[in-house]
Hints:
The structure holds 2 protein chains of 2 kinds.
Chain A: E1 5-11, H1 17-23, H2 28-35, E2 36-38, E3 52-58, E4 61-63, H3 64-76, E5 77-83, H4 84-89, H5 101-109, E6 129-134, E7 144-146, H6 153-164
Chain B: E1 4-7, E2 10-13, H1 20-26, E3 50-53, E4 56-59, E5 70-72, H2 76-92, H3 107-114, E6 138-140, H4 150-157, E7 164-167, E8 174-177, E9 204-206, H5 225-235
Parallel strand pairs in B: 1-5
Antiparallel strand pairs in B: 1-2, 3-4, 3-5, 6-9, 7-8
Amino acid sequence: MTNKIRVATTSLAGCFGCHMSFLDIDERMLQLAEAVEFDRSPITDIERCTNCDIGLIEGGVCNSENVHVLREFRKNCKTLVAVGACAINGGLPAMRNFIPLEECLAEAYLDGIGVENPQIPSDPELPLLLDKVRPIHEIVKIDYFLPGCPPSADVFWKFLTDLLEGREPSLPYELVHYD
Amino acid sequence: MSKTFTLDGKPIPFEDGQTIMEAATAAGVYIPHLCHHPEFTPHGSCKLCNVNVNGRTCSACTFPATEGQDVLSETTEINQDRQKITQMLFIEGNHLCPGCEKSGNCQLQAVAYHLNMLDNHFPHFYPKREMDASHPDVMIDHNRCIFCSLCVRASQQADGKNVFAISGRGINKHLIVNSESGQLKDSDINAGDRAAHICPTGAILIKRTGYTVPIGERIYDHKQIDQVSLETEHESHD
């Protein structure tokens, strides 16, 4: 056992771009690895998160599984962080909110160009889509927000070093963008 | 110019008939705003220029400056109110900046950056308003309209036309186009009109001009809106 800060990360209705931007801290990741231990994350093999200090959530909430994962993170993470435009306001995936779900599914699986054996997937293994894509703060309480599509590597670095060094995280003008 | 009021403790000279906003801008002090434009009649809809005048909240763009007023603008409380107002504007429309061609050049976004707004706080409305792409050169994404009415005022006061109006009540209010079909293509608007360029958000756009400025060179990439606003508003007076 170590005294390292435990960090979990996940992508809900995300594109993994925020995780890629996180990895863009490059060799600073080695410095981070000295202070931080990763729990559940796409970059580890851990399936369920347990007792973490920080949870980083990328992506909005688009299906039932996203809701379960988000609640698991909220239950286990002391500090939960909405990372990127999708987690904060639904992001570009929320553009489907203006088209009825039936029409979206029909376009993709029934009427779309090149569709063979048209049918809407209905296996119970598959999570059902929600009628709308939602930002994560509409499902659980969120402690911090890192805007950007994606937030730059320096945003991750500034935020995590602020937290690790016991400062209230803050982002200067140059690091705040929504695009 | 012997008359003054104080703004955050600093004396601001003014002439009779000037609003607090006009006097502050002339003195080089920025007060956040979206619906105010120095060339057009004040509107008072965005409420971002709210200031505290002798203990009461007023809109700086409509409130006349008078001798000895004690005006507060850059306080934590007032800026928190401004941030909440900006968040309301964001959740009321579909401000999905990553896919908007006004991003980096948008006053709504720049005010939000200036106020260090990191999230939208409120539940989203996700309104579904139809786009008007009927005109060959100008288009409207109604989901980004903040009802500042600058296009309405610019069309009437600068272009000598009457292309736009705000219609409807409450949350159903919306921008309408003065043509028999209600479509932009049947209106008097031209791509060169003031009204086609004055929108502070990405609601009214000129077609085929998106994404031409590299990231890093857009208006608000490195300069905050206070600096840009004072520069451009002084230019327009010179």
